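Escalation from tier 1.

The customer reports that the assembly of two entities below gives different structure tokens on two consecutive runs. Tier 1 could not reproduce it. I'm attaching the input and our single run for tier 2 to review.
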Amino acid sequence: MSSHALPGTGRRRFVTIGFRVGTYLSLLMIMGPVVWLLAGIVVRAVPHFSWSVLTHPTTGESGGLENAIIGTLLLMAGVLVLAGGIGILAGLHLAEYAKPRKNGKESGSLLRIASDVLSGFPSIVLGYVGYVALVLGLHWNFSLLAAWIILSVMVIPYIAKSTETALRQVPTAYREGAEALGMPPGYALRKVTLKTAAPGIVTGLLLALAIAGGETAPLIYTAGAFADSPVSMSLTHHPVPYLTFLVYGFYTLPENASHYLAYDAGLVLVVLVLVLLVAARLVVNRTQKHSEARRG
Amino acid sequence: MTLGEQPRPVRPTVVSTTPSKPEIDPILEALDPDRSRPADVVNSQGLTLSFGNKRILSDIHIAFRRGTITALIGPTGCGKSTFLRTINRMNDKVSGFRHEGDVTLEGESIWAPRQDLLSLRRRVGMLFQRPNPFPMSIRDNVVAGVKAHQIAKGKQLDVVAEERLRQVGLWDAVKDRLKDSPFRLSGGQQQLLCLARALAVGPEVLLLDEPTSALDPISTELVEGLLRQLTPALTLIIVTHNLGQARRASDNTMFLYEGQLVEHGPTEELFERPKEARTERYVTGRMG
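Tier 1 run:
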């Protein structure tokens, strides 16, 4: 290159640096709170942590977390089945079957709008709907089933959206290749399309589970707000204990023992979500051994 | 003259311009497994095709002789790929698809109600412009169609995989990494893998949509050489932008221009003595 400065070089350099600084700042905005929150929980929970917390149920305003951990796991398992099933099927419908009609109009838009509107409802509103319709209306009382349904309604739009997006990102070349080989559509969907979209679908499902596990407001109205209730496998008429209520409810109690328990509950939740993340990554990696993205 | 009038070569060669009837051994002819079948495998009878109000192909009449290679040439947007994708009905789902006239495979309309779409596509294979292996192991790629059509299972699949990989000359390169990802192969190898996959389900016709345009010259030569070996068992129709390739690799050539079949005939004749002015302008490079 010649030694002459190109016109606008100074301005370009300024813009480049500006953008670079901007991206680092946004990175900081995301990383900062995560580190701060994690550190806050670990620092407050670990010094008082004893393993017996995991094996003893909550009694009164202290004790352990056994019943709350099992309750939270139960809630998440139900959401995985109920919301996972419906959400993935809805996403599949939007991406694969609600194709533009012959007249060129987009079909499935009603489902898409309904799903988007549903995802915009505040969770406390959903919780209250569950309280009025299920807990009182159907006389289920505070119960596992009411909590499952309301949590599922909350995260289904999320799962449907992430599933649809993942499926739409499957390269047309794969679909056409399968089509041109004369693969039956269902077979091609299972062996080629879904397999390729699996990481996106699993990630969406996982985030939805994490959201469900971290919810408090809708659960207070549907699962109940009793930290020391025993875990019951009956679907109705028994309140469910869960970790987030301990975080929310025990932090404001006067005793130190209650505060410790609240921090322990927070720590257990964080570890739970981390375990979920790692497990899902491992599963996804196994299925993506032959993916195009991993050609290296 | 239609392609059907061209003498049927026992083993077609590129320079088959002399229209004299070749000597055919009567015993060999009696042994020909295809003798009772129509000589024209694919026959387009006045095919007119539109997407919505846009007409893509107008009244295409052409027959494809069994065991020949036909090059489909023409400028971008002339309807080459659309014509090709009609033969295995890949266009049917495009919005606004309408057609008049007919295309037959072995004498039967490809749109006949009793025609099963999936077995039609098994009989009419396709190779795409860009190699498109599936995200599964190399071996699973070769037998993907075989599994879907339940042609073979279990240990037989390994036999099929080896046989087809040998057929495309890829076996020695991949035999030790059959379980590896296909995306670690070179572009040319990936295309050969896709060819093996297409051949594995035993098609009668192979449609090739610019199969070498994304490949380097050496891979291109390799693929071209392979295509010749596939005849006369298969009938090949190959869309190409590469006129040299059309000349080298095909018995017959058809020239499409703005959705119309301007001219078709033996490749040598069409390139050396084109009857239409537009054909001449195109094959001499004065029209792109």
